[in-house]
Specification:
Distance between the termini of chain A: 31 Å
Strand content of chain B: 5-15%
Number of domains of chain A: 1
Oligomer: heterodimer
CATH architecture of chain B: Alpha-Beta Barrel
Order of helices and strands of chain A: EHEHHEHEHEEEHHEHEHH
Low-confidence stretches of chain B: none
Shape of chain B: globular
Number of strands of chain A: 9
CATH class of chain A: Alpha Beta
Distance between the termini of chain B: 56 Å
Structural class of chain B: alpha/beta
CATH architecture of chain A: Alpha-Beta Barrel
Number of strands of chain B: 9
Low-confidence stretches of chain A: none
Number of helices of chain A: 10
Structural class of chain A: alpha/beta
Radius of gyration of chain B: 20 Å
Mean pLDDT of chain B: 97
Largest sheet of chain A: 5 strands, parallel
Chain lengths: ~325, ~300
Amino acid sequence: MKSDPGFYDYWPYEKRPNIQWPGGARLAFWVAPNIEFYELDPPANPQRKAWPQPYPALPGYGIRDYGNRVGHVRQMEVLDRYGIRGSISLSTALCDHHPEIIAQCAQRDWEFFSHGIYNTRYTYGMSEEQEKEMILDSLSSIKKHTGQHCAGYLAPALSHSENTLDLFAEAGSELAGDEAGFYTCDLFHDDQPTPIRLRSGKRFVSIPYSLEMNDTIAYVVNKVEPRRYGQMLRDNFDRLYAEGAQSGTVMCIPTHNYQVSCPHRLKAFEEALEYITGHSDVWVTTGREIASHFLDTQYDTALANIASKQGAC
Amino acid sequence: MALDPEHLRYPNRTYGMDHDRYEWSMLSDRRPVQWPGNAKLAVWVNVSLQFYPLNQEGKPFAVPGGMTMPYPDLRHYSLRDYGNRVGIYRFLNAFDQYGIRPSFAISTELAERAPYLLQRICEREDELICHGWNMDSLHYGGQPLAEESELVERSITRLRELSGQEIAGWISPARNESENTPELLVQNGIRYFCDWVNDDMPYSFHTKSGDLTAMPLSNELEDRFVLMNNLHSEQSWLEQVCDACDFLLQEAESSGGRILALNIHPWVLGQPHRIARLEQALAYISSCAGVWNAPAGEILQHWMAQQGG
């Protein structure tokens, strides 16, 4: 085990090169719906239980199934109203189980990125070979069912190994060279994209995905009230938008439709989207587009700047 | 280091669900439902009347809302009992004030212990739902079939004897089930249950002994979950109910009838500092155009009549 994963160097949030977003926008805004499949009876991972109760653990399974049966379509209608294309963090087995949902997302030209195969299959304990097989399977599924080269990764249930990011980037290269496997949502260290150091040397970035704005973290872990969640989203936006006048920032709302799309919660979310998209100079975009833009226009400058900051100021 | 190869095998990775209990179906694809009087929203208020024994075994887990202190946990025992003695009569007044016809899910042991309360409900002609024997008599995976079979049969039969009602509905304590619970319910004449909450509308649930209907009694909006689990304010519970009511009414405009299901507990909302929020919620709901209030059995009957063909 390491004391530091070694993905990035210290990079102070002052005096960085200015990030320019398309059209002079201050802030890149993206919404990442997690579209997930949880199994009722998965094999038991030795390090993490899928469900608190013995089989059948219907309370946890049922509410997640609610997201698929009820929630996603509700959120699609809301995102359509504000011109937002989702960037889907996808349990890729859902392409097999529920192709109707995939079709409706594809019709909207949403992005699909990999969130593993099932959200009840954890990376913990996998050999490097096994994790590679799982990641390649998920990328191939996205290609097969949507035609997209998968650009991004969020490990299933945020379960990682030391090799996860390397394996993802390499799997992307194996399938489609630099067209796939070039950004991660697994790290929460910054409000701007940052270059990530990999063993392959591939050009690869971390895109802010925000654990704090994640509806499941807000509602299930931190147990916030719906209207407070709406206020948190607006406050998060206000500050990042203000700072974006100097140098472009990124705001992400990761969602789960078994939380945010419940009848008693959707209003708070929708009001926040209305507020955010009601501002000028907001680039409403996707994870892939943010990562590509950063790689094409800012990545080299950022690397040089980071290198120059490794001594004392 | 490696996981057993079964961790990379996906035997159920095919169309539909990963089990055979119900069909995969998106709410947005279903045929619209009409409620009586062209109402858009059926409002179902369910009161859970629960007996939490002092000598809780906690097998296989301590039921949420149950005893947490070393025996005898008088504080939790008596505070839960408060609901059945005091809080429930505040509820009944509120229902009368706003013309609400709720269902009452009752622990059969409570029906036995509090004949006055049972008679009061029966005289109102409100629908009873069996809520198991008591809150410590859990149904759980791995439970011996004979043990659970006796428990289900005793809970339902005894409640029928005590109440004289048909008893068509079921809610498991803690909404927990074994792999056999749905079959046992059908074998005992239950027609709907409220444990699997994965939809906003009823749907058909398969058992080896015939079909049940799953009724969508929301967990996420219930008073205990919002106030005791999430520690939200009373005002926030009220706002959440009103927001849900508004949203479902609006969705019903284009999608057909919807259901707003409120599961409430007299030991939670029946407290003096909370009861006004329940009254305000009922006042708001009753003031909305297009709302039809009915207990679960009646909503199910109307839904069922529109499922054929």
